[in-house]
Amino acid sequence: MLRKLGLVVFLFLSLASFLVAGINPKEVIKKVKKRYEKLQSLQADFEQVYVWELAGETQTLSGTLQLMGGNRYRIETDTQIIVTDGEVVWTYSKERNQVIIDWLKSSEENPLPKDLLFKYSEDYEPHLVGEETLDGRKTYVLNLVPKEEEPFIKSMKIWVDAEKWLTVKIVQVDINDNVNTYVVKNIKENLKLDPALFTFTVPEDAEVVDLR
Question: Which domains does the chain have, with CATH numbers?
């Protein structure tokens, strides 16, 4: 099951690393936001690796992500489907044949996929680590440092495609030292996605838990 998230990290960066890369980290974030604002839709494959520190366990998930304007998204893995039309969110467990229905705003403590991939609020200060090649593409690597004290996500590092200005990798560390890693691949922009993808028809024999 997709883990509930939050955001950011705390690493000290030297001025030298910034000069080598030759780009202002705030400018990178600005370009990512600008790119996001122009997107009408997005489809991608992703992999999530969650390392549970206390239990010494690792969970790996892979699936597809589809985003559309108005906070609509669909996340599908082998075990779960999460769908929202921007107001209602359906979380369907294939293994349990159970659907949990809630208002999207009820779970605003969990970042939307678009926020995770594209938007970095004023609560975080970006610092440039340098450049890396990821899947054959040049990326800028940044640490996002929280401005607030004792945030749930104490550390976050992101990799931004230097050509497309899209986030392609995220590593988060929470206050319990659990590590959540996302890798996004095969990104396709501005596809004509069927609006029906962003509503969910509950199977007739499924258990329904309606929290609205």
Answer: 15-70+112-196 (2.50.20.10)
